[in-house]
Write a sequence for this structure.
């Protein structure tokens, strides 16, 4: 099956036609919009009986489920493509068909009707759209057979496709259709709060502009900001960027109060634009034109979740991206549980390090996680700051650590150990992703040699895990395959 629609989202839109093919893809039946909606019971019987194959069926089945029809994904050529190659940019049907069956591309046949990406498919003549839909279906049907045949040669990939990706379609479709409730009053309060704070920060920043430039400037303009920061204040060279990383570098070197003000200003600009005004309809303060938000008439956002959006297998999100909402209460509180329900957050405790213990068989890591008598962060911190890998305690350990961290005499022990533990955590969680000394040195403002000493101490303490990491890194050079537990 393959559905053509008048917009990208199922809410407020309609299916324009639904193509179906069986046998060998030579013949395609295309059901027009009028029949799809006008003969609901027939459409329901059709969709709820039999096994369905799609290309990106997560998109298609939501349109039927919004009508109360339980459409399912049994095979999916886009998920098969992702199973074989998790890199982005290879999963469009034209590309998949060209790769697997050397089929010519056909997407261009609609170009004359679509002046831009926002143009609805509704402007396309029905017979033209039907032909386009039929070619889609014919291609999809013809690539499915060789893809499934190749899957049989890879038991690991068969497991990934059958037990993880295909069932995930059903779960994600239901999640998107259900949506998340928005607290409109809280969104408006946050907008006003951030707007007031931005006005205050802008006024503090303009003090520097008036003093050194002679007039107010636009702090959103890189050119004007460069002139102030680098030209007038001498905090860097004109060739430097004004992005967040550059500002943080300047902050470490010069400790000028304007930099912290700028970082605060940027943070609130992003919070307001990315996490607040995109939820509900807001008027543009300059033009008065309404900028539509993502909340629908049911008071919920029905965000997109993409199974094939990353190389690592993590979900990707959009419209809005609910996967990257800041942890602070202000933004999180904009989403609320429905009547009689609550939100629950489930966290995997040190999942990466437990996985590393399991896969590497490292005796020290394994003992930490099977006995549960001591924290891995304490063991790691002991390896950094104590003579041996031991948990730090007592007055001698405190004094040794305080001196190594260059903290003043009399600093509270809880603060000393807290600072030490922060460094242990950074290495523990970073090492499995290949974090190196330069990155640690930058975060903690220490010499690279000292950061390398921490990494070396970690490798000595968890020597089998270190060997396993090295083995994984060298596997591609030795032309070895690496298969995850999935």
């Amino acid at each position: 099956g393959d559905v053509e629609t008048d917009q990208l989202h199922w809410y407020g839109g309609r299916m324009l036609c639904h193509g179906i093919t069986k046998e060998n893809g030579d013949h395609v039946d295309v059901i027009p919009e009028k029949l799809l909606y006008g003969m609901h019971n027939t459409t329901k019987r059709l969709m709820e009986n039999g096994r369905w194959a799609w290309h990106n069926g997560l998109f298609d089945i939501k349109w039927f489920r919004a009508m109360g029809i339980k459409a399912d994904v049994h095979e999916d050529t886009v998920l098969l493509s992702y199973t074989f190659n998790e890199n982005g940019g290879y999963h469009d049907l034209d590309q998949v068909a060209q790769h697997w069956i050397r089929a010519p591309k056909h997407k261009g046949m609609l170009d004359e009707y679509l002046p831009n990406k926002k143009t609805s498919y509704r402007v396309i003549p029905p017979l033209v759209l039907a032909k386009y839909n039929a070619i889609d279906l014919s291609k999809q049907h013809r690539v499915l057979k060789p893809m499934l045949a190749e899957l049989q040669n890879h038991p690991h990939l068969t497991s990934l496709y059958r037990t993880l990706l295909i069932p995930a379609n059903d779960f994600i479709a239901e999640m998107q259709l259900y949506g998340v409730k928005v607290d409109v009053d809280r969104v408006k309060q946050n907008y006003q709060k951030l707007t007031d704070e931005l006005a205050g920060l802008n006024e503090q920043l303009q003090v520097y502009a008036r003093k050194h430039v002679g007039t107010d400037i636009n702090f959103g303009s890189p050119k004007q900001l460069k002139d102030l920061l680098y030209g007038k204040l001498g905090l860097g060279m004109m060739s430097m960027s004004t992005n967040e990383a550059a500002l943080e570098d300047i902050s470490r070197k010069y400790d000028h109060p304007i930099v912290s003000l700028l970082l605060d200003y940027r943070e609130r600009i992003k919070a307001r634009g990315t996490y607040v005004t995109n939820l509900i309809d807001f008027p543009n303060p300059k033009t008065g034109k309404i900028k539509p938000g993502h909340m629908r008439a049911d008071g919920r956002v029905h965000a997109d979740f993409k199974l094939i959006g990353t190389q690592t297998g993590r979900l990707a999100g959009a419209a809005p991206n609910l996967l990257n909402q800041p942890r602070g209460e202000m933004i999180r509180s904009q989403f609320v549980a429905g009547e009689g329900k609550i939100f629950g957050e489930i966290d995997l405790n040190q999942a990466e390090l437990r996985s590393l213990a399991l896969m590497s068989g490292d005796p020290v890591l394994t003992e930490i996680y099977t006995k549960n008598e001591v924290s891995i962060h304490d063991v790691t911190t002991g390896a950094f700051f104590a003579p041996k890998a031991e948990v730090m305690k007592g007055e001698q350990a405190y004094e040794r650590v305080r001196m190594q961290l260059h903290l003043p005499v009399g600093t509270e022990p809880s603060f000393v150990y807290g600072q030490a533990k922060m460094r242990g955590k950074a290495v523990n969680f970073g090492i499995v992703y290949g974090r190196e000394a330069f990155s640690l040195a930058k975060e903690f403002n220490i010499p690279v040699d000292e950061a390398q000493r921490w990494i070396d101490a970690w490798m000595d303490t968890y020597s089998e895990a270190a060997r396993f990491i090295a083995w994984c890194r060298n596997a591609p050079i030795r032309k070895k395959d690496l298969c995850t537990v999935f």
Observations:
- The CA atoms of residues 283 and 289 lie 5 Å apart.
- Residues 184-212 form the longest helix (29 residues).
- The longest strand covers residues 15-20.
- The chain has a mean pLDDT of 92.
